[in-house]
Amino acid sequence: MDTSKATEGKYINGEMVKNSPTKKCVILDEGEFVEGQFGEKFQLTVEIDGKQKIWSPNKDSIVNIQDKMGKDSKFWIGEIIKLRTTTIKGKSIVIGEIMDK
Question: Per-residue pLDDT tens for 30-68?
Fold first, then answer.
């Protein structure tokens, strides 16, 4: 039995994206704002490589999605997001963009 699930968190992170064979996720819900360590943040439930995870898109990712799908996240459900990582100040950051159909 593959036990990798036991060591994975519930959130998408840079390492997960780097190790993803597809580097794509599908938005499953319209998301919600939750209180985080540094104030309110937006979270979406997504599926990546057959696994349901939580993604907290950063401002750049939200703007990328809004540019193609509008500001109402209920219209984002079912959209495929291409994920990539970049490093800022030594920290791996996940950036997402809507895939062209």
Answer: 999 999 888 999 999 999 999 999 999 999 999 999 999
Amino acid identity at 92 = S
Helix (H) or strand (E) holding 69: helix 59-69
User: How many CB atoms are located within 10 Å of the residue 44 CB?
Assistant: 25
HSE-up of residue 44 (Cα within 13 Å, Cβ side): 26
Write the DSSP symbol of residue 22.
S
Q: Is the pTM higher than 0.70?
A: yes
Which runs of consecutive H residues, i.e. helices, occur in the chain? 14-19, 59-69
Q: What pLDDT is attached to residue 7?
A: 76
Q: Is the pLDDT of residue 18 over 90?
A: yes
The DSSP element (H or E) to which 66 belongs, if any, is helix 59-69
Does residue 67 contact residue 13 with C-beta atoms inside 8 Å?
no
**How far apart are alpha carbons 68 and 54 in whole angstroms?**
21
